[in-house]
Each structure stands twice: as structure tokens, then as C-alpha cells.
Sequence to fold (461 residues):
Amino acid sequence: MSRLRHPLVQVGIAVLLTAGWVFVSLRGVDLGVFATVGITGLAVLGSSFLLAWAAETAEEDVPRAFAIAVLAILAVAPEYAVDALFAWQAGAGGATIEACGQLTAAQIEAGETPLARACHSANLAIANMTGANRILIGIGWAGIALFTVWRSASTNDPSVTSRDGLLADVVELDKGISTEIAFLFAATLWAFFVPLGGGIGGLDTLLLVGLYVSYIVLVLKSDKDTEEPTVGVPKYFQDWSLPWRPLVVILLFLYSGLMIFTAVEPFAHGLEEIGLQIGVPSFFMIQWIAPLASESPELIVVAVLVNKARSTAGFNALISSKLNQWTLLIGTIAVIYSIALGAYGVLPFDARQSAEIWITAGQSFFALAILCNFEISLREALVLFLLFISQVLLEFALIQEYLTLPIGSHDLLLVYTAVYIAAGVALFAVRRESLRELIERATDTFRTAVGRDPVYPDRAD
Fold:
């Protein structure tokens, strides 16, 4: 048994999980839908472990926030690939605000002409992006909080605190995450204005990508964080000398990133095809099932960290993923669209997708209000999940005509947006002192990074 626990054996087992997909890819074998889903799912699982170990090992040489940011980008790379495909199809087909505005919603949905299909692809790019972002919070943040508290009975996770009351136990977050929360808050506020322009254009790209680049520069200038000791595979690799340690980190990042990038798309498409076979609408599959598959590496990575009583690093990874999806993803799909179009253009979307962006921004606003006091309780996690899943199920019931409501799907999204915003405003009002502390911490992080003295030295941990 002890031999099976040797770090290199664990790495070998993870690599073995990816071997089937490597063989199938190189030989070009067609296994059928169900077998493809199975073999790519194993590859995603094995790669997620390798990715988590690479990020933890990298913390020996770079700031933890930067290592987690790299992990987050690689883990959600498949989501970028799916959205980039739709954005490219929209641009290549000549979808513009003016051209798509001449078509009815029914014509775009039917996709009977090249232009209609291009406009539909533009809508799918937004739907896939908003679905992925809402899954990350509604299932990712909420589910990992619940999983952390449940596992704490075995892991003795110091981040979990028991409190009196129904579902009152909380997961305490690292207050150093204030920088990520502040950047995510800025991106969320901007997102509310994106639909007002009728599409995603150059200004959105400059601001949102600029926010993420500023964040990366900031964390690179921060001090290396070594508060949480590593164990297992990362500890084994961290004991390696230079240059072997960074080489193995780079190798693990590259291999796991390549496996995830190539395996998740057939995994997601396989799930889509299975869903279509059982009568699930294609638009619903693109918005929810495909993003759920593409987000699976990130959720597996975080679950691995939580299982090792590293819930702080796990939540940092989730928040970093949300930040890069809410900035880089939105900004880069507009660039890809313009390249395919052959000229600068604004990626168009219809009124339904405007509502999708607003509800996604609303959910993000409410989730940040929850985290502004640097903790999330079981109650709050359940509210996040129930708001998310109830909207998805109600929308599905309306699409399938299982349910009749006095409002349509578009108005339902606006109602949920209002609920999220109202709840977020109320929480921020109640937690205004926590919000002030968060802003002070983020301000001092910026000042320290540029070589200036902190304004609030009493906030230093």
C-alpha cells in the first residue's frame, strides 16, 4: 500500500488515465459517443490532478496568486476554445449589428441562411459564456463551500468554523483574496453596461483585458505566500533542486493543459449529443451542458485542494477563474470575431442575450456581496445554488412547455436579475464595514506593489 502512495506512482496513475485519449487521438479511432465521453472524461480527470499538482508545486518559486491564476486559465481553456469557435463562425459569416438586425428572431433561430447561422453563432457565443460564468458561481462556489464543510469532519480544515444556528457553519477565506474580489467587482459593474451597446466591442476588450493584465502584474509584484504547507506530490516535487523543479512544473502544466484542451471539446460534444438524443434542446445544451463539461477540470482541481484541507487555495482558484472568464473571455471573443470578420467589428447579440448578461452580472454582484466579509456560510451557499438551479429548471420547463407562467423566458431572466441585485445591495449595506476593509486591503496591495507605503498598516496580516 505504501508503494502505491509514492508521489511518482500517483503521477503515473494520473498519466495512465490520459493514456487512452492519447492513443485514440494519435490513431484517429472513432469509438462512438458513449465510449468517447468515457475516455475523454478519464483524461480530464487525470489531467486535473496533474494540473493541481503543478500549481501547488509552482508556489515554491512564484507568488501563490500567480500560480493559481495560471491554473485557472489552463483549467478553463476549453471554455475559451468553445466560445472562440462560435465567435469565429459569427465573424466569418458576416454577422454584424446591422445585418443581424434585419433578421427576425425566428429566422436566426432557424438558421436557414449563412447570415442567419452566423447571427445564431454570435448568440451562442454569449449564451455559452454566460452559462459558464453562472455555473462557476452557482455550482462551483456554492458546491465547493458545501463540500468543504462536509469534508472538514475528516480533514480538520482550519478554514471551517462551526457556529450555532441552522446551516450556520462557515468557510473562512484568505483576506489576501481582497485584490481578486476588487478586480472582479470592477468587471461586474462594467458588465451591466455591456448590453447597452448592442454588442461586445473594442472598448469592452480594452477595459476588461486591461483589468486582467493589471491584476496579473499586481500579483507578480506581491510577496511569495508560503502560509499553507504542501504535502504529497507537490511537496515531493518542491524538494527537487533547480532547474529540475521548474522544469517538472512546466512539463505538468503543458501536458495537463494539452490534454484538457483537446479532451474537453469531444467530452462536451458527446454530452450534447447524448442530451439531444433524449430530447434536450440544442440551445439549452450549448448554454448549460457544454459549459458544465468544460468547467469540470476546474471543479475537480478545487475538490482535490479541498480534500487536502487547502480550501483557501481552492476558493482562490475559483475566484481567479471567475475573474479571468469575466474579463479575458469576454474581451478575447470580440478580438477573435473581428479577425474572422476581416475588419474591426462589434460582436452582436439579441435582446435575450442582453438579459443573459444582466442576470450573470447580477449573480456575480450578489456572490461578491456574500464574500465581502471573507467567508461563506452553508446558508449562503445554498441560496446561491437554489437561485441558480431554480432559474435553469424554470427556463427548461418553459422551453419544453412543461409549465405556463404569466411571463416569458426573457422576463424571467430580468426578474432573477432584480432579485440578485436587490439581495446584493442589501448585503453590501449590512456589511458595509467589511466592504470598507476589503477596499482598504485592495488599496494597500496596490500601493505595496508599486513601492509605496500602505495607507492602512493595521490591516496587514
